[in-house]
Amino acid sequence: MIIHPELKDDAIALMKGVWFISNSSSLLLLLTGLVLKIFTPWLNSVTLTLIILFPLTLVLNNLILIGDYWFLRLQGYKTLSFSKITRSSSTAITQIGLFYSMLQSGLVLGLVAGRFFTFLYYLKSFGKNLIISFSKIKTQKVLNQMKKYKAQPIQVLPSSLLSMGSTELVVFLLAALFGDISLGFYALAYRVLSVPSAFLGSSVGEVFYQKANELIQNKLSVNTLLYKTWLGLACVSIIPSILLFLFGENILSFVFGTEWITAGTVAELLAPLIFVNFISAPTGKLLMALGEQKVMPALSFCIVISRVSGLMIGYFSSGFLMGILLMVVFHIASLLLYNIVLVFKVRKYQKQLTDSL
Known about the structure:
With 357 residues, the protein is mainly alpha-helical. It has twelve helices and no strands. The chain has helices at 8-39, 48-73, 77-100, 106-126, 128-136, 139-148, 151-217, 223-256, 261-280, 286-289, 296-316, 320-356.
């Protein structure tokens, strides 16, 4: 939504509105968690630290999301890329340090620290003038812009929050259900698989969205761009994904030691999901460019439910590895559903172009 306004002050007003809504939602989530902790016996196993850190992580994610959209508006791809490097490196370094110090919830604290350092980087990149302008924007202007672009906050913001929150939710659920050791295995496997693909995928996604937006604004077809992007990403990732799927245990135990063989098993289970997500994630914002963002919250909610339900079924049945497997299967199914809807909406747009000729 921050991308669309022509005037800088209008975009800043939207930033302020999104900031208020996001932080208010996170505060409500914190209060809900505290109430449930007091009155729900099942949450006795969930520490107060996790209940407090989860909304804090969402607040930081919201601020990072605002930064992502702002620099995407400015086509500041260098800043966007460096922010992802900052996030991944600071998260990894902090998690490793806290994990080996045997600090309880160290991996979760590392996740929060990574988001915090990324926010500080964005804060520095915004510059003093932008921060001053942000503070000077009047409430009425914020309300006017939120009203003008009301479809965006109602439709896109929940989707973005759900997408970002689902990743963090897995970490917190693993810590709460299976403990820090299982979370450590998952964190190592996920980082080995996801970090390299995240750098390339995010860069491709930013360029893809800009090109798709230009094509749609000029009433041109996006079919070729979409399918070529999918094919190119599949070609890049297919061989590494197959190798990790077949030899994940051997690779991770060789690199990190035999005590991490379970992380290798997790890597084998996650490899198909990372492959599908690597192909899907960069093109997900095409629904926004097509003006079909109204379906995004429902699709993002399906992804959240797929990840949570897989872990919960595993917890109540066969344990940690079964939970990871079910989460992968359900998540892949939800991503395929997302892409089926995307193809359907692209075909609808193509038909509108044909009918207008």
